[in-house]
Each structure stands twice: as structure tokens, then as C-alpha cells.
Amino acid sequence: MGRAPSLKTDPAGGVKPPVWDPLVRLSHWLVALAVLVNGLIDKPGAALHVGLGWAVLAIVLVRLGWGFVGPATARFASFPPAPFKALSHLGGLARRQRPREYPSHNPAGAMMVYTLWALLLTVTLTGLVMTGGRSPMTIAADQAAVNSGDWSALVKQAPAEDDEGDSDGGKIVGAIHETAANLLLILAALHVGGVVVESRALGRNLVRPMLGRGKA
Amino acid sequence: MKLPRFAKDAGRRQSAALAAVVLVQAVAALFFMGDAAADIDLDGLGPESAVEALVSLALVLGIVTSGWQLRRTLETVQSQAQALEVARGALAEVIEAQFTRWALTPAERDVALFALKGLDVAEIATLRGAATGTVRAQMTRVYAKAGVSGRAQFAALFVEDLLG
Q: Where does the HTH luxR-type domain start and stop, copy by copy (chain B) (predicted)?
């Protein structure tokens, strides 16, 4: 990166870069892990898949609540959705300008995190509809029953699926679930790419604050 | 500055533990409430539902309380860090002002500050690229201007200011 050294001496315009609080950090890594396992590894519809979905829903809800009552860096007020600012931030990065420091997410990062939350809620809630709201424990119990030769569990499931109306409706919900999940994985990859680009442009490792470590 | 760092580490550990508790409680609460809802769906409302509602309430209250506690801990850690910074800045100002009152020369100010930070004559000489004899002479002049007999008394002047 051909950065002029004079730019590097500019001390971030007086804004302290964010130090993420433990709830933000822990929820971030737990959700990331669950998304990877549910998106790439485990079997859709299995008790583990549904259980992780439930856990993600709980974690995201806590994080959204934390956005109102948490410390300044975690609060929504610190990173309001601003699409035009996000575009100008990305434009600046493309022109190899050194970005300024923000007290929380930068405008592009803010748009990314709101999109990711929306997708996480979409995926988990459509998942709830697809399973008829059956808990992972029920699913595990039913699966165990089926495995031991008691097929009545399958009959019990059937009315639950009817509750969602016609099978077309069920198919649409399933399609939304799958599309949103794929989009989530793509955006997660884009998010990692964004962290790499921004880290280079800022000249500091942005992964460190998410691991709870101070300046490099 | 060992003490504040210990305090900060304790605060960090405590807040990390609280964050983990909040998340575990939230996951547990959602699972429990989902299971309770399924029970009600299957068997209707019963005496068990009342207990499940009570446990759900306790879990949610636990999450809110831990979250509030976490916020308090984070605020405390931050205000301690700020107070320490203010104290450092204030002490530096007090020292500067006192040095000016004693009319220390720039070289004497440097030597005096190093002495306050606990460096010995040989270390100060190395840092300043001067002979130990020069540093010793400068320190003697500093003690004379401050009206003290030696290093311990000299440092005590500022500690006394801090203790009030």
C-alpha cells in the first residue's frame, strides 16, 4: 500500500478507536461459529441445527437489547444506518484514502452489521416456522423415537406442517430460509474481506479489538 | 504502576464472566420457554404452567440484572481508567509547577524527574549521556533548591501532595 508517511502521523483526528465490550465480542464469535456450523457442516432440520438456531436467536435478541442499554460503542446511536455515508466511505477506500476513525462501526460496517442482524432474524424465524416451533429437545426425542422404530413421531409432525397452511406457503418459507442463509454466508465472507481492507487502510489490526486486546 | 493494572484486569475478567452469564442465561431462557410453550400447546394450562411461568420470569429477570451489572462494571472500569489518567496529568502539572517555583534549569528538571521516577545516578547518567559526577552535582543542586537533604525527602514532597 503506497501510503504517504505524512498521513500516517495524523493521530485519527482525536477519535478513540472502539474497544468492544465482552458481550459484543462473545456474541460476535458465538454467532459466527453457529453460522459456520449451521451453514456448512451440520444437517438441516437436525436437532443440532435447530438448537444452534435457537441459541443464535437468543444471542441476537440480547445483542439488540444491548444496543439500547449497553456502553457507547455497542449502542445503535453510535452507528446509525447511513447508506450514503457508507458509500462515500467505500469510495474513499477505493481511492486509497486513509479512512478516519469512528467511535464505533464505520458507516459501511454499520450497514453490514444491520444487514447481518436482519438476515440472522430472518433465518432463525423462518426456521421456527419450518419446524412448527418444535423445540430442539422435541426434535431430538422424535428423532430418537424414529431411530428406534417408532414411526408415530412422524405422524405427530404432519399436523404441525399443516398448520402453516398449504404446502406452497411452506415451500416459500423454506426458500426464504435457504436464500437468507446463503446470503448470510456470502455477506459474512464479505465482512471478513472488509475487515482486511479496512485494517490495511487504517494501519491497525481490526481483529485485535474483537479479541479483547488493546492496540498492537 | 502495578496496582491499577491489577484492578483493571479484575474488572476485565469480571465483565467477561458477566457477559458469558448473560448469554448463557438468554439461551437457557429461550430453550426453557420454548419447551414450556410446547407443554402448554400439548396439555393445556395446568399447575405446571404456573411454575414454568415463574421460572421464565426468574430467568428473564436474571438476564436483565446481569446485563445491568455488566454495564455498571464496564462503567467502573472506564471511570477508573479516566481517573488514573487525570491523576497522572494532575501530578505531572504539580511537579512542573514546583520545578518552576524552585527555578530549576532544564538539565536539573530532567535529572529531578528521572530521580522521582526512581532511576539511580548511573542510569540517569547513561540516559542523559553525561558523567555520573555531573548528574550527582546536578542532583545536589536540585536538593538544595528544594530545601531537602536527599532523594527520599525529595520524593516525599510530592507523595505528601498526593496524599493530601
A: 101-158
Architecture of the structural domain at A17-210: Up-down Bundle (1.20)
Measured between CB atoms, does B24 come within 8 Å of chain A? no
Where along chain A do its domains lie? 17-210
B56 neighbors B29 (Cβ within 8 angstroms): yes
> How many residue pairs bridge chain A and chain B with CB atoms within 8 Å of each other?
72
Residues 6+ positions from A58 with CB-CB distance below 8 Å: B23, B26, B27, B29, B30, B31
CA distance B107 to chain A (A): 29
The answer to whether A145 contacts chain B (CB < 8 Å) is no
B18: chain A residues, CB-CB within 8 Å: 22
Furthest-apart CA pair in chain A: how many Å? 74
pLDDT tens, position by position, A73-127: 899 998 999 888 888 888 888 888 888 888 889 899 999 999 999 999 999 999 9
Q: Is B133 on the interface with A (CB under 8 A)?
A: no
